[in-house]
Amino acid sequence: MTSDEIHPVRPAVRRTRSGEPGVKEVASLAGVSWKTVSNVVNNRPNVRASTRDKVLAAIAELDYRPNLAGRQLRQGTSNTLVLAVPEISSPYFGRLAEEVISAAKRRGYTVLTEVFGLDPEAEKSVLAGYRDRMVDGVIYSPLTMDLSLFQTRTDTTPMVLLGERLSGAGVPHVSIDNDASARNLVSHLAARGRRRLGFIGARPGSGEGTAMLRLDGFRRGLEECGIPYEPDLVVDVQHYSREEGELAALRLLNSGADCDGVVCASDVLAVGALRAFRRRGLRVPEQMAVAGWDDIPEAAFMSPSLTSIAPDMPALADEACRLLLARIAGTDLPAEEVVIPHELKGRESTY
């Protein structure tokens, strides 16, 4: 080195007790105040572009990672949502989770999944909230729910319901039109000459739950088509699964009831019912037509392929996130009801 060469002396980087660089170290390296670093980290607009570039360069050089938890505590927000569902292993709820996570991510939010299973008490616990977990809002897909539980809810965490229409609950919700879609299925089967239709998937005691809404729509569809409603052709289930669908279909056949078509309250029930009919030697759809809801991936690839109501899942997730984030932002909105589109996908099981 010659005597006329001058090299700037960079300040020594001092580390925090944890060994990681902190805000003060970034500020020292960038030659700015710690407040300026905070403004850059929080993406505030009142920072010159050249200053922002210096701070970002210092952050990159030091591999500085902001204390997210501390920032969340100061701001009172976590950018975290909860999706509460009865199960995640079923095709419908698995797809729902994927779509909600994607819709939330586009808005800068992370999603935690809460699975409450078939336990009514665990399901009710969702209403108690997540105050100890720094959650900004909840997207809740209940199996059964009583209006009184919402009316006595004390937790103030913003919430959106999926699939339920609880008038007076004061909670926004997003659903398909269960009544219209059930009537669509009945009309579809009636147009193909089916006159003795059964329903698999009733869940007594589920209040305004999806199963009963679909059963009510099924009854209205029969009335519109001039087909008598026969209670003996309605089979209850404990929950939605292939096993329950098979058992319900076998009970229907064992009852000796004369039936030429069944509407199942979900595709997984329909998959089980199809297995039962095959075991008994019934040809589908020649002797027994079968239809379901949800348009799970399995529906298009099984043999025979399954006629199903296909909800617009991306729209459902997007609307749920939109409504929830409006509530989180403090927007004073009424308890909005959003009905998303659905499509009847006719396949081999009814043709």
Structural features, described:
- This protein has 351 residues and is of the alpha/beta class.
- The chain folds into three domains: 23-66, lambda repressor-like DNA-binding domains (434 Repressor (Amino-terminal Domain)), CATH 1.10.260.40; 79-176 and 313-341, Response regulator (Rossmann fold, 3-Layer(aba) Sandwich); 178-311, Response regulator (Rossmann fold).
- Helices cover 40% and strands 16% of the residues.
- The strands form two sheets. A six-stranded parallel beta sheet has the order 2-1-3-4-5-11, with helices on one face. Strands 7-6-8-9-10-12 form a six-stranded mixed beta sheet, sandwiched between helices.
- Strand 9, helix 12 (297-301) and strand 10 form a beta-alpha-beta unit.
- The protein is elongated and about 85 Å long.
- Residues 1-10 have low confidence and may be disordered.
